[in-house]
Amino acid sequence: MAGEKRYLFDNPRNVRRILWALYAACILTLSLELVVHRHTEHPWEWLPGFYPAYGFIGCVVLVLVAKWMRKIIIRPEDYYQQRDLPPWPDNGAARRGEDSQ
């Protein structure tokens, strides 16, 4: 274990630093949204936090649609197994009528 290579996210302290940086970025962008004037196209864009809420709702809808689609296009567990077919010859000689040696 002493000779193993350590990666960035192996240290919990680094993970906490990344999370705090992401939290700070979220707080900064939400606070700037209240201060910066935006040129909006639709009336609902004036709502505070509209874009984060829109993105979150979009992701939730995407996951729900994917779960619904999975029920439709799922295959059985043994879909790719070839139980019904005879074993394939090693060199193809049996298909040509030759002796395999």
Description:
By secondary structure, the protein is mainly α. The chain folds into two domains: 1-36; 42-76. Helix content is 51%, strand content 0%. It has three helices and no strands. It has helices at 12-35, 50-73, 93-96. The model has no long low-confidence stretch (mean pLDDT 81).
Q: Tell me, rounded to a whole number, the average pLDDT.
A: 81
Query: Uncertain runs with pLDDT below 50, 5 residues or more?
Result: none
State the end-to-end distance: 50 Å
User: Structural class of the secondary structure composition?
Assistant: mainly alpha
Portion of residues within helices:
40-55%
Number of domains: 2
Q: How is this structure best summarized?
A:
The protein has helices at 12-35, 50-73, 93-96. It is built from 3 helices and no strands.
Please tag this protein with its features.
transmembrane, 2 domains, 101 residues, transmembrane helix, 51% helix, mainly alpha, single chain, membrane, 2TM domain-containing protein, flat
Topology overview:
Layout lengths: L11 H24 L14 H24 L19 H4 L5
Keywords: Membrane, Transmembrane, Transmembrane helix
Organism: Parahaliea mediterranea
Protein name: 2TM domain-containing protein
